[in-house]
Amino acid sequence: xxxxxxxxxHYRYAPTTFSRHADLAAETVxxxxxxxxxxxxxxxxxxxxxxxxxxxxxxFNGDFHWFDVDTPTFAAINAEVLKHTAxxxxxxxxxxxxxxxxxxxxxxxxxxxxxxxxxxxRIMHILRATARQLPAEVARLIALPMHLVVxxxxxxxxxxxxxxxxxxxxxxxxxxxxxPINQQWVKNICDQADLVGFAxxxxxxxxxxxxxxxxxxxxxANNGAAGMPNFGGTKYGLITRLSLHEPVDGTSQYGAKMGDxxxxxxxxxxxxxxxxxxxxxxxxxxxxxxxxxxxxxxxxPDYAPPxxxxxxxxxxxxx
Length: 319
What we know:
By secondary structure, the protein is α/β, with parallel strands linked by helices. 29% of the residues lie in helices and 19% in strands. The protein contains nine helices and twelve strands. The protein has helices at 39-50, 71-81, 90-93, 114-131, 135-142, 180-193, 272-282, 288-299, 305-308, and strands at 24-25, 28-32, 57-61, 85-87, 147-152, 155-160, 197-200, 207-211, 218-222, 237-243, 254-258, 261-268. It has a six-stranded mixed sheet with strand order 1-5-6-7-9-8. Strand 2, helix 1 and strand 3 (57-61) form a beta-alpha-beta unit. Helix 4 (114-131) crosses helix 8 (288-299). The protein starts with 23 loop residues before the first strand and ends in an 11-residue tail after the last helix.
């Protein structure tokens, strides 16, 4: 096993698992992937939820930890996230004391540079040192499930961290969803499990893809990162909102109505200055996280909404 490039067998699950009865029902669900230890983003998401006419169910679908090597920040995020519904991502999974050599657990594809993979493994090594100070909290994290089925009105949606087969799968990445074989794979799984679509994260950059235009259309909504900018020249994160109720005018970055279900990407306008101050306190210039993420945090990635919507094919990048 190559740390950061491959993942253990226990990361995998059969797509047939999504044929089960729904694990929860709600009128509105916020799917919050890739918080990455950003406490100001978490606080903003809670404020957004408080302004909804119908209180949303918050689902944190993994990697809510990452930059938060400061123990009080790690503990604060853990305490709030675990009040809600949560799935574990590769980050939470690899905090286990007996993690078995998967490094960061990202299962990075070949187009990601070896140096980026090695830095992610180093970030995980440092985050594990923080986690070891909170063994009871880590035990709660590694006991979290890897997937969820939610019922919103008549619509059933699968929520995962990676894709429909693996905790760290990349087949819901923006570039993967251009491939006809992956589009058909998504549609087949949704048809077999009676799902209208999937909400995911993991691959760092957002995408919303709708396959088909009739009543049988399916979707994949990948929010990219709730805790980092997702588009060039921006300083806000994104979450996925699934709801029977239309979002307030102007709050949706993009989305679609799938039957009676509104699927939208909501911007998370967190206090960017506070986020940067905390990041720099923990990750100085030359550190693994600073080298890998500083440009994205301050300038956003080389990515734009047309890329997310599949209107323009973006290069194969993840940051």
